[in-house]
Amino acid sequence: MSTNSSALNTVLFAGGRGSTSISSALAMNQEVALTIVLNAYDDGKSTGRIRREFPGMLGPSDIRKNFSNLLKTQNVDSHVIPEILEHRIGSVSSLIDPYGPRIDAEVLGHIESKTAQIPRNQGDKILAWAEIALAELRGIQTRQRDFYDDMAIGNLVFAGSYIEARCDFNSAIEMWNRLFNLRKVEIINITQGENRFLVAIKEDGTLLPNEEAIVSNQSTVPIRDLFLLSDELSSGDQDELKKRSLEDSVEFLKERERLPKVNPAALAAINSADIIVFGPGTQHSSLFPSYMTLGVGDAISQRNEIERVFIGNVEADHDIQGETLRSLLYKFGSFMNKGSTVARDPSSYVTQCFMSTSRESIRPWGLEEGFSSRVAIGVHTGQWTIDGKTHDGNRVASGLILLSNRLQELSTAVGYISISVVIPVLDEVDRISHVLEGLLKFDWLAHDLIPEFVVVDGGSVDGSLEIVKNFPVVHKISLVRGVGRGEAIRKGIESATGEFVVTFPADGEYEVGSIVEIIRVLRNSPVPVVFGSRAGFCVDSAKQLREIYGGRSFLYFASRWGGILLSLISGLLYKRWVADTLTSVKGFSRKALDSLSLAGVSADWDLQLIVDSSIHELAIAEIPVQYRPRTVKEGKKIRVIHGLRASLVLIKGLSLR
Question: Which of 54, 279, 399, 532 could form a disulfide with 14 if both were Cys (CB 3.0 to 4.6 A apart)?
Answer without folding.
Answer: 279
